[in-house]
From TrEMBL:
Active-site positions on this chain: 184, 292
Cofactor: Mg(2+)
Species this protein is from: Dioscorea cayennensis subsp. rotundata
Name this polypeptide is given: Dipeptide epimerase
Gene that encodes the chain: LOC120280870
Residue sites binding Mg(2+) per the record: 211, 239, 268
Keyword Magnesium annotated: yes
Keyword set includes Metal-binding: yes
SMART domains listed in its UniProt record: MR_MLE
Length: 386
């Protein structure tokens, strides 16, 4: 078994790309539908269940890797039928191709599933391949990504609900040990303020992240910050306050939020490519970039992480609405790199069922990653394993 001392930072994954030959025996994609405990409403959509795609890749050496392609309306380009079709084509491609280096396989996937239009499926396939390779060399993913940490702490999200429902959730999460609450806003400014007041009563010591999901105009976003300031509330982060293409609005909110209120602004929907990240950094359009594997792919995310770290811009890691399969991979990456100031990997907690066996250990807001190789998981399917 390879030890952590042989796995420095990203170089370990980079080395494997030029040294590990991938020979795929079987590969499949299947629908992964899991109900939510309660409807999940944000500024631009509402979900009752996660309707994602699971990817399973088995190498000829018998090692199985798992990935998840989440589908979120108005955020991912793919819907579930499109994602299933793309996954089937990609899996067929993997099986039919001769053995090739990991880097070559991943490059082929980038060409086969290009850009933002197939980013979620590409991420799912990349996850499965990297998981299988990590299992082949007996290394947990968090060590493969650098081994900086084996534990992370996540916030938890309160969707758009009534003030009384928000207060009830805040009290519940307080008892469970969550110290940072991410509040979905952006649908109605006055209602958002009332919800914030209710949460403040129920969980007076919590830190706030506001996530508008593109829901405000620039003026509305600044107005929210002013009203919170008058309440004595300073969010630790204001995520995607304006429409993804409103670059000038994003610049304005970022400047006012930081200079007047001491609040950092994160670009989420506005950052869907390396080019977007370069634009944000060069134009000082945001203080933080939110990394999501499903909007960038794994390799695309690593490129933006490297760019951001070199530029000194803050990093957040988040997800769509994934099971512990997708959340786990992102968590391994976050722990291994150890460079994220904000961690938003909570959606598996919001699901009514857990189809994943094994994986990270959960204790309230803390996720601990074990020494099991790869993710150390398999997917339960109708009472059995897939």
């Amino acid at each position: 078994m390879t030890t952590s001392t042989a796995m420095p930072s990203l170089n370990s994954l980079q080395t494997l790309q030029t040294s590990f030959s991938v020979d795929v025996a079987t590969a499949h994609g299947r629908a992964l539908n899991v109900p939510l405990l309660a409807p999940f409403t944000i500024a631009n959509s509402k979900l009752d269940s996660a309707r994602n795609v699971a990817i399973r890749v088995e190498l000829v050496n018998g090692c199985v890797g798992w990935g998840e392609a989440p589908v979120l309306p108005f955020v991912t380009a793919e819907d579930q039928p499109t994602a299933l079709a793309a996954a089937a084509d990609a899996c067929q491609f993997l099986v039919q191709n001769p053995p090739m280096l990991l880097g070559s396989v991943l490059a082929e996937m980038s060409r086969f599933l290009p850009g933002h239009g197939f980013a979620s499926v590409r991420a799912g396939v990349e996850m499965a391949l990297i998981d299988a390779v990590a299992k082949s060399i007996g290394v947990p993913l968090w060590r493969l990504f650098g081994g900086a940490l084996d534990t992370i702490t996540t916030n938890i999200t309160i969707p758009i609900v009534s003030p009384s429902e928000a207060a009830e959730l805040a009290a519940k999460y307080y008892k469970q040990g969550f110290s940072t609450l991410k509040l979905k806003v952006g649908k109605n400014l006055e209602s958002d303020i009332e919800v914030l007041k209710a949460i403040r009563v129920a969980h007076p010591t919590c830190a706030f992240i506001l996530d508008a999901n593109e829901g405000y105009t620039a003026n509305e976003a600044v107005e929210v910050l002013e009203k919170l300031h008058l309440m004595g509330v300073t969010p630790v982060l204001f995520e995607q306050p304006v429409h993804r293409d409103d670059w000038e609005g994003l610049r304005h909110v970022t400047h006012v939020a930081k200079e007047k209120y001491g609040v950092s602004v994160a670009a989420d929907e506005s950052c869907r490519s390396l080019q977007d990240a370069q634009k944000i950094i060069q134009g000082n359009l945001a203080n933080v970039i939110n990394i999501k594997l499903a909007k960038l792919g794994v390799l695309g995310a690593l490129d933006i992480i490297e760019l951001s770290r070199n530029a000194g811009i803050g990093l957040m890691i988040g997800g769509m609405v994934e099971t512990r399969l997708g959340m786990g991979f992102a968590g391994h990456l976050a722990a291994g790199l150890g460079c994220f100031s904000f961690i938003d990997l909570d959606t598996a907690i919001l699901l009514a069922d857990d189809p994943v066996v094994g994986g990270y250990e959960v204790s309230g807001a803390n996720y601990k990653f074990t020494e099991a190789s790869g993710q150390g998981v398999f997917l339960r399917w109708d009472g059995g394993s897939w």
